[in-house]
Structures are given as structure tokens and as C-alpha cells.
Amino acid sequence: MSNPVIRRSTTGCLTCKRRKKKCDEKRPRCERCLAGDFDCLGYGHLIEGGSPNTSRNGADIPVPPSEAIVPPSTQGNVYPSVMELDHSPNGAFLPLVNYIGSQIKSSTAFLVNFSERSPSIPKSPQLDSVERENMVDLVVSQYLRIANQAPFRPFPFAFDKAMANRARSSNLILKTMYIGARIVQALLDDTSPHLFVGWIDNFHRQISGTQPSAPETDVNSLADRLSALHDLAFYAFMLLNSPTGYSLLRQGVPIFLQLAAQSPQVWANDCTISISHALSPVRHEMSRFVLADTISSLAFGTAPLLNYDTTVHQDELSHGKYGFLEMVYSCPILFLVLIARTNSTRIARLMNQGSPSLADIQELEEHVQSWSPILDYTEKPPESIARLAIQECWRQATLIYAYMGMCGVNSTNDRIQPLVSQVAQLAETVEAGSPLETHLFIPCLVAGAAARKEKHRAVFRKKMLASQSIGARLLRGADFVVVLDHLWHGAAVEGSPVTWEDYVTSRYATVPVDT
């Protein structure tokens, strides 16, 4: 009796054929190769070899390039495009969202265009255990390449184990981290990173486009979705530009609100989110969203996506409790809360809904002046000095923004220029090319908007250019250099006095976002 013959696909990709693996035959690249990080060599050998099956039913006739580059997941997809999504949250959430009389719109044309030219993402629910572990291994290996560059302070835990555990926590997180790993790999190896922009679009609309008929209540599921959307926005910051990333971030508002509804302390009352409780380390997903929202509101000059209760609970803002955000992004949590307060107060002032009192300004000043950094005597002196300098820059920038954004004073105010000078001097102490240099983006942006001297402007411009690609942290800082150039050669030419609204006008002219 003859031995049974193992049948393998005769129409699979060349890589699977050489590896003697069953191919899923997805085009233009098979998902088995993508999941295992193999270079899929495609299906050209079928044409060259004249396979007898290719002309029988047309199933393997080469697809025209314009069609072959469309991901399989976009054909007949039940999910709407990012350009078609209705992002209005459930009516119960409306009081919390700053729509300023209009719906959130998407400005993700880049993503839609690129999604038509990118391979599909491996569908993790269909992967076997071996392929899942291949994805986890790739995630850990690539994230380790930037582990010493990305955070403001070294992680006090085994980074590789933490990344592996997180990747295994759910299919959603695994797929999101896998996209990030492939992007990091492409950026560091300089191998066409924009090929993965379509992955961001495809996966983003799967997450944001899947709205349950009733509000979702599973906390872990909501947290995973919010985390995934935040990460995808961050990838867009790295690969494309800040407006595109911000558009993706805004579409996470409904999910944030559903998650906040499960936390009575976060949902302070009918119309505000308690920022102190939202920054709780119990839910890093919410704290990262609040951080991104607050910093984006400052940089773009737009209203924050959520209405925050910015009451400072000093006992809850200790370094130990909120160390995660500061460890990664450098901004002391107290300053983040005060920046959020300035964002809200500025918008209220512009809409004639009240101005801050002298007592409000004095309270903010007292909070800023009373803050003190934590010194780590185990660090090398140069690194310790650089970290102290960066956090002092945050302190000065918080005051500059408060005076200009909250009080409405211009750049010639006696309180402003000494602070600008201090930021410039401190920024210069951070070595050029150091991974820490990228953490200066926001302080240099704020001080740059008020800078009157060319020597200060030159420092801020140089430091902001460090924040791009793999070096982007909160936003893509290099995108905002053109905003300051427009301001410096326009309203602020030759050191002319300007207000924060002059900066916002330059931002509108050079880096537009949909509102």
C-alpha cells in the first residue's frame, strides 16, 4: 500500500513553497509571511512556470497593479472608511465633549490614499499559537531597539517581559503592537516605512467603526480599544504628520467616554472629567489619552476634546503615584494639570465666558513654584543634569503659557522674556543628538511663540527639529517649526509683540486641522 501524499497548495507564494508551508494565498503578500516577518516573494513564479491551473478558471491570473495593492480586508468591508464615520458620541455623552457647535471631522486623506497601496495586517484571531508567538517575538525584538531612547527615565522593570506580557494580553493589543513593531523596524532599517500607513487606516476603522448597538460595559475591552486607537494615532504622528495623528486621536472620544462611565471618580459630574482621577495609574489608557488631548490642545490652539475639572489634588499628584507618564513623557503631572487648566480658561476667555481672577493666577503660580523634582543619585551626572534641565523647561513653559493663554498678555510682558531666556539656556544644556533632546519640543514651542531675540529662536528651532520620525514623543515637533517661522517672519518680525492668538493664527495658516 502506498504512503498517502501530503497535498500542499500549488498556487501559494514562493516563500511558503520554499519553506514547505501551507500558504493562505492572500495577495499581494500572504498573511503567513507577514505574521512571521518573512519576505513574501509573491506569486510571479506561477506565471513564469506556466502552472496549468492558472488559465483554467482565472483564479490565479495576475491582478492589475491598481487592484493588487488593495488590501483584501478592504474589499467588501462592513466597516466604514475613516472618512465616512460619524463620530458623534452617544447623546448621554454630549455635555462632556467640546464640539464648539460642530461635529468632529476626519482629516485622514493621507491614510485613505495610502491604505489603497499597502498590504493587509495578519488577522490574529486566525493565527495558530506558533504564528502568534512569532508576532510576539517580533514585537519584543523591535521595541527593545528603542527601549533606551523612548522613555524620559529608564524603566524600573524588565522591559522585554513587560512587552511580551502586554502583547499576549489580547488579540487587539497584539495586532496594534505588531503594527508598531513593523513601523519601528522599517524606520530604523530605512525600508519604506510608508508602506505601513495603510495598516494604520485599515485597523483604525475596524476599531472605531465597530460600534455596538448598546454602550459597551466591559472595562478591559474598552481599555484595549482606547489604547489601540491612541497607539495608531501615535504611529501616524511618526509616519505622516501631526494633523493626521490628531484626527485619529479625536475619534477615540466616544470610547474614552464609555470607559470613563465605568469609573465614578473620573466622571466627576454631568459635564466634566476629573483630570486628577483620569490620570490614575490604574488605567494608563485614560491617562495617555488625557495627556495627548491636553498637549494637542496647546500645540494646535484648539479646544480640548473633553471638559476637564482641573482641580489640583496635591496629595494625588505625587511622583510615586503618577510616575508612569512622567517616566515616559517627561512632563510632571502637576504641570500637565495646569496646562489643561490654561487650555480651558483660554477657550472660555475667547468665548466671553469669563476671565481668570488675580487669585486664580496666583494659585497657579504657587503650584508651579512649589513643585520640586525628584533627584536620582544613581544616574550619571550628565543624564541627571539633562533631565533636570528638561523638567525646569516644563516649569518655565507652563508659566509662559499661563500668562499668554490664560491672561492674554503679549510677549513684551515683563514676566515673559526672563522665562523665555531661561528655557533657551536650559535647552542648550541638553546635548544635541541625545534621545532626551526630543522631550524639549513643547517647552521650546511655547517659549518660541514668545521669543523676541534671534539667538533664542535659533535654539528653539533646532531643538524642535529633533522631534520627528522615531524621535516623536507627544506630537511630531518638527511639524511646528514652520508655524514658528511663519510667526517670526510675520506678526513677530524683528521682535514685535505678539499674543498667543497670533501663534494660533500662524498655526492655522501653516498646519491646518479640521474642526
UniProtKB/TrEMBL annotation:
SMART domains: GAL4. One of its GO terms (molecular function) is zinc ion binding. CDD domains: GAL4 (cd00067). The keyword Nucleus applies. Its main location: nucleus. GO terms for cellular component: nucleus. It holds the Pfam family Fungal_trans_2. Residues 12-40 form the Zn(2)-C6 fungal-type domain. InterPro entries: Fun_TF, Zn2-C6_fun-type_DNA-bd_sf, Zn2Cys6_DnaBD. This is Zn(2)-C6 fungal-type domain-containing protein. It comes from Rhizoctonia solani.
